[in-house]
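Escalated from tier 1: adenosine monophosphate holo job.
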Amino acid sequence: MKKTIRDYNLENQRVLIRVDFNVPIENGIITEDKRIKESLPTIQYALDHKAKVILLSHLGRVEVNEDMQKYDLMPVAERLSDLLNCDVKFVNATSGNILEDAIQSLKSGQVLLMQNTRYEDLNGKRESKNDPALGSYWASLGDIFINDAFGTCHRSHASNVGIASHLPNGIGFLVEKELNAFQPILNHPVHPFTVILGGAKVEDKIEVIENLVTKADQILIGGGMAYTFLKASGIFVGDSLVDENHIDYCKNLMEKYPNKIILPIDSVNAKEINENADSMEHFISDFEEKEIGLDIGHNTVKLFQQYISDSQTILWNGPVGMFELKPFSNGTKQICELLKKSKAFKIVGGGDTSAAMMRFGSSDWVNHISTGGGASLELLEGKKLPGIEIINEK
Ligand code: AMP
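Tier 2 regenerated the structure:
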């Protein structure tokens, strides 16, 4: 078990908290503040326990000087101030006297946000390459380090792994929530355990399939990746998205696990991809020349329903069709409906999948929606996340 923020006496301590404030900002206006809200329980806990709170976050990719203005964290400090209902001191620096003096004069129960950690990337990618001197410098500004940025835990950066290697450390409530949701699924899922995989490419999900095929009772495959599997089964799929480099992989997998990989039996097709496209639904054996498969059909929904309604644990990653366009959105919408009715423990991962859920109504019927697309994918692939590995065990 990893140490958490609860394992430390925070009073009067300078507590460095790595948060994920990588929010969309357009012309200085934050258009979605979900990530800021998700970090509040940890920040509030530290403030309630009289810590001197120093927040670090990245925002976007800072590659050239012009990116600095675009990825300035100042608007986040203002929003955070409103949400916490207290003053958040913003320091427009990532090192040097101004930052050090501001931390020096910070009192217990006060909070400071320093400028975007990736400003340091302008200087030889010091943050993203985990420059040892940078990690050690940032660590010198605090007494305790808490990692609450799940979205970056799959990366080894100066602001997570770098700092953690020099200070007593722990995870925050957001990271703890993510691990508590994923660990049971990965280590001892309650069966029947169904995985629903969709999205565009097989290539992106191969390692997830490899890791989960032995743990799950079945993997229901939809989305663009289904057509590579179908072609590998000898089915003509017209002009659908097919990953030719992975046909053999799919063939071998289906031979090895004949009862586990469940493919669509019908498909919603069109000859062009747009909002007004004429779509037609066919059994999978009836594809015509030039047709592109863009969603699962009604019979596939019924087939998937049999597995979903029996399941005790369900993991969903990737929309089962091009849900952004109305003619190809029904399959993903129906999966939402089926999951809504299911009594299983349900986890959803991936930005597109949660975007789809929001589009088709609420998301309060899932037990957990992962905040970190890349990080959750790597957990599902069975990989160790460096940002978590470096944290002390209890
Ligand atoms: P991913 O990021 O891999 O989860 O992929 C999500 C994207 O896959 C979404 O933008 C969907 O529009 C897209 N997608 C879903 N089904 C298909 C399909 N049949 N053909 C092409 N793209 C698809």
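The two ends are 6 Å apart (CA to CA).
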